[in-house]
């Protein structure tokens, strides 16, 4: 399992967000919240996580519409208890199928809150 220490290897700047997000894999649908986002991926806080390497179908609800992408789980953060951060998944976008311009405009608007 990998953790958030991958920050220095990211190719795109992330911005803080709080967006509803749905991830589907075969017959499993997970609902969660994207808490950071870039044009190349996101971190989704969700109580259940999929295996690293899982191919996923992503729907991200932004203020002006929905972005639909295909991606892959590249790292997971399991529940640690004791008041630690919630579990979630880092997902790399492999193809943005719908909402490319919407995603770009949203990221530009949020860039002042970059993390």
Overall form:
globular
The first-to-last residue Cα distance is 23 Å
Please give the radius of gyration in angstroms: 13 Å
Give the class-level CATH name.
Mainly Beta
**Which sheet architecture does the biggest sheet show?**
6 strands, antiparallel, barrel
Strand order of the largest sheet: 1-2-3-6-5-4
The topology string of helices and strands comes to: EEEEEEH
> What is the CATH superfamily classification?
predicted glycosyltransferase like domains
Can you give the mean pLDDT?
A: 85
> How many discrete domains?
1
Strand content: over 45%
Query: What is the number of E strands?
Result: 6
Key terms for this structure?
Thrombin, subunit H, mainly beta, 51% strand, 6-stranded antiparallel beta barrel, 1 helix, 115 residues
Structure characterization notes:
The chain has one helix at 100-110, and strands at residues 15-25, 28-38, 41-45, 55-62, 65-77, 88-98. It is mainly β and 115 residues long. The chain has one domain: Thrombin, subunit H. A six-stranded antiparallel β-barrel has the order 1-2-3-6-5-4.
Summarize it.
With about 120 residues, the protein is mainly beta. The chain has a single domain (about 5-115), classed as Thrombin, subunit H (Beta Barrel), CATH 2.40.10.220. It has one helix at about 100-110; strands at about 15-25, 30-40, 40-45, 55-60, 65-75, 90-100.
